Task: inverse folding
């Protein structure tokens, strides 16, 4: 009697047990996809933040941005190999070098061409992109490289429902922190005030005693510090070689446009949207990863041509 | 006494179009000089040349006897020549207070003017200090533009068409600040279309026509006929 009565119970439990975990597994897979996508978006936001900063201040699109990221990655790699430092310390050394390079690039090259006509800066930075790629090919060869990060490469944090890689989490956290700091600089410091004033009206800014060319050089230098941070995580996350810059530029572009020109938090949102689209695409079919990101970009452009959080007036 | 500002045979051109044909003028410390003239007489071009927005031969513009004609605008400003530009040109991305602060960001020149004293001069700005500069009325924007220029404690303040587009009562309020500005030690150059207003506040008047100085006299001694002739040309 007792055993008889318990039978349907046991059977019922088994039946439910067979269905529920399947739902849970599906939900967990998609939750995982979503989380991984957002974290990947942190990397794209780092690619994009420097581009967004430079465009926001001087309406200059730097087509060599992706190649500068790759260049910074090689710089970190060389520092790691030569000095035997860990990648984070190496990035700390590379950052001021990149700042100086960015400052000089703006001061001695790009300042000559910024102005009303947007074509000359595009040509110059396109040329720079080609030169950088070939220069790096000559020096570093076409071999894939990677910045070794030891145990960090495979470390993860188990949150029960999802497991998060420590490195992607660190990437995303760095992106949020970088954008937070950039915003603070922009809106609460004297140099940020000069950035915004010069962006509004360089001639009137010069009547305030501000040298717009000096401001531009500072901005590009700052952008190259963000580029170094992006390069650090790019190099630890995946293989890189001298040819991958332009694809990073496209992701950065898309994140900036989705977010809305001139909005740094928008750029983070843009990065997350591309990241999610890519991981969702990859989940459905691994071949769709890159395509899904581009499709999400086009979809946002159709719905909101000026991006999600547009700030810039022109 | 060496003039604070002097132009010697100042010429300026936009490409083929010549806008100034040898302007000679001088401003002494503490003086208030008005520059009047019809539209297109070259007043704004003259301001752009003095401030370094337009670059000239070094010797065409002198600051305390030193040639500054070829200096860029930011360096001219750092010498103590501040500008209230035509059309006010507030920075739209900056609040009222930030607009004021940026005026004194590079040069503070230890003088009377600070955020506090600007707010005493134009109390309404204190209430609106967190608004975007461009959300204010035209008159209030003009006050911000003047305050912004004063923040560097300039020795020479150039005001380009400060009354343009403003109601008479608002213009009166703005000109009411002039005595305090002069008392603080700045020489002032006022570019005006409102001749009566210019004559009432200035020590000396220059009249420009078609890029030349057609009249130069102390404001007190000037006659309506002389101005008419200088403004529109001699009757033929």
Result:
């Amino acid at each position: 009697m007792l055993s008889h009565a318990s039978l349907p119970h046991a059977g019922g439990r088994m039946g439910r047990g067979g269905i529920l975990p399947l739902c849970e597994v599906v939900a967990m897979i998609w939750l995982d996809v979503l989380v991984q996508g957002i974290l990947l978006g942190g990397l794209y936001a780092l690619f994009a933040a420097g581009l967004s900063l430079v465009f926001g201040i001087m309406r200059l699109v730097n087509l060599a941005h992706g190649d500068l990221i790759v260049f910074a990655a090689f710089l970190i790699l060389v520092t790691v190999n030569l000095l035997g430092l860990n990648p984070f310390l190496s990035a700390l050394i590379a950052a001021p070098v990149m700042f100086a390079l960015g400052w000089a690039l703006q001061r001695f090259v790009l300042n000559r061409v910024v102005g009303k006509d947007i074509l000359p800066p595009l040509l110059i930075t396109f040329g720079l992109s080609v030169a950088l790629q070939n220069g790096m090919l000559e020096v570093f060869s076409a071999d894939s490289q990677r910045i070794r990060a030891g145990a960090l490469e495979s470390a993860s944090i188990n949150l029960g429902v999802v497991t998060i890689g420590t490195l992607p989490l660190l990437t995303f956290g760095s992106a949020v922190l970088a954008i937070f700091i950039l915003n603070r600089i922009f809106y609460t410091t004297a140099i940020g005030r000069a950035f915004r004033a010069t962006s509004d009206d360089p001639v009137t800014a010069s009547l305030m005693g501000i040298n717009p060319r000096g401001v531009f050089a500072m901005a590009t230098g700052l952008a190259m510090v963000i580029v170094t941070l992006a390069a650090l995580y790019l190099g630890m996350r995946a293989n890189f070689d001298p040819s991958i810059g332009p694809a990073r530029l496209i992701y950065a572009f898309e994140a900036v446009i989705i977010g809305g020109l001139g909005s740094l938090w928008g750029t983070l949102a843009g990065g997350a949207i591309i990241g999610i689209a890519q991981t969702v695409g990859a989940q459905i079919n691994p071949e769709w990863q890159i395509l899904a990101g581009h499709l999400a970009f086009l979809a946002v452009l159709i719905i909101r041509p000026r991006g999600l959080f547009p700030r810039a007036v022109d | 006494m060496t003039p604070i500002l002097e132009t010697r045979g100042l010429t300026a051109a936009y490409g083929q179009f010549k806008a100034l044909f040898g302007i000679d003028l001088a401003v002494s410390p503490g003086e208030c000089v008005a520059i009047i003239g019809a539209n297109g007489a070259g007043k704004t071009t003259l301001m752009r040349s003095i401030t370094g927005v337009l670059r000239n031969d070094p010797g065409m513009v002198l600051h305390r006897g030193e040639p500054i004609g070829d200096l860029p605008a930011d360096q001219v400003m750092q010498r103590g020549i501040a500008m209230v530009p035509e059309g006010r040109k507030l920075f739209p991305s900056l609040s009222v207070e930030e607009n004021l602060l940026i005026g004194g960001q590079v040069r503070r020149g230890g003088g009377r003017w600070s955020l506090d004293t600007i707010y005493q001069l134009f109390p309404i700005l204190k209430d609106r200090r967190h608004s975007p500069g461009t959300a204010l009325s035209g008159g209030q924007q003009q006050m911000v533009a003047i305050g912004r220029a004063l923040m560097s404690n300039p020795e020479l303040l150039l005001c380009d068409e400060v009354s343009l587009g403003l109601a008479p009562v608002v213009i009166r309020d703005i000109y009411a600040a002039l005595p305090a500005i002069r008392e603080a030690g700045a020489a002032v150059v006022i570019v005006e279309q409102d001749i009566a207003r210019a004559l009432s506040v200035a020590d000396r008047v220059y009249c420009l026509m078609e890029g030349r100085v057609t009249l130069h006299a102390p404001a007190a001694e000037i006659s309506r006929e002389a101005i008419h002739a200088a403004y529109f040309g001699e009757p033929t």
Q: What stands out?
A: The first strand of chain A starts at residue 156 and ends at 158. The radius of gyration of chain A is 23 Å. Confidence is low (pLDDT under 50) at residues 1-15 of chain A. Residues 2-58 of chain A form the longest helix (57 residues).
